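sorry for the late reply, my laptop died twice this morning and i had to redo everyting from scratch. anyway the thing you sent over, i finally got around to it. pasting the sequence first so we're on the same page, its 181 residues, then the predicted structure underneath. double check i copied it right bc i was rushing
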Amino acid sequence: MIRHIMSHVLRRAEDRIGFAILATALALFAVQPAFAHDYKVGGLEIGHPWSRVTPAGAKVAGGYLAIHNEGKDADTLLAATADVAGRVEIHEMAVKDGIMTMRMLPDGLAVPAGGEVKLAPGGYHLMLMDLKQPLKEGESFKGSLTFAKAGKVDVEFKVEGMAGPKDAPAAHSHDHGTPTN
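ok and here's the structure:
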């Protein structure tokens, strides 16, 4: 009889512990997107969209992020929007023969199958034009990215300090009118 009672008590305790572990796991899973700042659309993963703080009166800023294509087919970033900008263009900055050039990519930016494209200071980036307000460190703004195959995904850009996120590439001195330190 005592063995039966003890067995019943232990099963109920195991059920409670199992439920507590499940509840904790679900709670952590629900909170995870708030910390991650990553987005997914189709086979594409978009990592940490961000922009730099801008001085008062600035009319342009850069938008940066990483796009990883887990799919078997290439895709193309065709367009982007940002609530804080009148328009957004996809640009490439490069140095050729010691001369820095920047050009709009009217056909978008290819994202190879199984590959990654990084939009970072000094390279590919989103050009946020006709800013409606200064970008202040610690704030964020909504935007979207439109891909040829994966479609549209809404994202949120975090406004970082002049150095950018801790894992960002080093800043370059030419960043569309945004001063650097």
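The chain has two domains: 1-36, 38-160.
thats about all i looked at so far, will dig more tmrw
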